[in-house]
Specification:
- The structure is a single chain.
- The chain contains ten helices and twelve strands.
- By secondary structure, the protein is of the alpha+beta class.
- It folds into three domains: 3-158, Beta-Lactamase (2-Layer Sandwich); 238-305, Helix Hairpins (Orthogonal Bundle); 311-457, Histidine kinase-like ATPase, C-terminal domain (Heat Shock Protein 90, 2-Layer Sandwich), CATH 3.30.565.10.
- The strands form three sheets. A five-stranded antiparallel sheet has the order 2-1-5-4-3. The protein has a five-stranded mixed sheet with strand order 7-9-10-12-11.
Amino acid sequence: MSVAVVRSLRGRLLLAVLALAAVVLLALDTVVFVSLRADLLDRADTSLRGVQTQVVQQIRNGRPPARGLAADARMLGVSEYFIEIRRPGGEVTPLAPGLRDPGAAPPRVPRTSADAAGTPVTVPAEDGEGPGYRLLTRALPDRRGTLVTAVPLSSVDGTLHRLLLVEGAATAGALVLLAVSGLWLLRRGLRPLESMARDADAIAAGRGGLRVAPADEDSEVGRLGLALNTMLDGQESTQARLRQFVADASHELRTPVTAILGYADLHAQGALGDPAHLGRAMNGITDEALRMRRLVDDLLLLARLDTVRAPERVPVDLAKVAQASAGAARAADPRYPVALETGGPAVVEGDGEQLRRVVDNLLGNVRAHTPEGTRARVAVAVADGWARLSVVDEGPGIPAESLPRVFDRFYRADRARGGHGSGLGLAIVAAVVDAHGGRVDVAAGAGGGTRVSVRLPVTGSG
């Protein structure tokens, strides 16, 4: 398996599955091996105890201990035995020598009978090369010596060896089968991801309008596709708005630049020789330059709000902000009466200058888009943990079809309201309010005109 395959998701998943399966199979093989070995040893121990019981019973009955022992021992399920009596004086008496293999080395008997008395133990052959033995010793009645009984473990070892071969072959076959089937299943299961990757490469190569597939709620891959498509839709929408924003900004800047260039061209042609004409041209240049500066300032403010979403957080009394803005609006143009209604302090956390810009823009819209003499009312109140600011005018109002778009940048509904502006005033209001964790809405006033409502969380409301 190449390094690239191992590093791939398919390779890592396959290796993980194979490793887990190998651990499980090896554990199962171990359990089977240990269980079978214990069972075989238990059978050998049972035959040893049976032989010893038979010998002791014959001794107690005064019969020769070896009489009929060979036949009885074979009936216990084992064909070979090593049986002998070790006398206290050191004499060794073999019993039923026909049950043992003459060419096999005898077992290594423990030096003291206490080492194996009553409990079967596994011992090696005397020469250390032959098969091991299962050995059991027992003291004979009347201190006649120690009965030593052992059975060779050659059959047990052979059975366990064959089991190991079978388990090894079965485990290897199972892992190979699992690897083949797992690779096929992983390829089939990851095929949607490969298709999604190809679609993403095509989108990255500039083929706009494409979407990844599958994209559904039926699987994890499908939900990933839905999330990616949602992200792509958002990116395309953002790019479209950015292109429109740049186009609108260019258009708005081109108008004052064109006017300034026109005045400069008139001056170059000598058409402004009259001091009165020259004065009007200079005033026009100043007006257009100021208009261009306001537009650039608005664009910079919007860019700053888009980049830094969290404004400076200090306690600000929205009622005092509204009072200062209403006074400035009256001074700026007394022809537009402004009434102020406050119900006491309305302290919020935020940037005082930006919040002042909100009220100034709303009152500036009244002057820019309503006839002379239009009255406006600014109200500030606190309710349910929110500071509520509303600006209501008695102008001609905004067409219902334009209400959903009034907060879009550079959007103007001038045909209904008249006046001039960059179309950024309400966009700035919406951006500032959003940065302060609030909400702004616009609707038709109860008696006509327009009502703009701003809600901001008061200090301590979260």
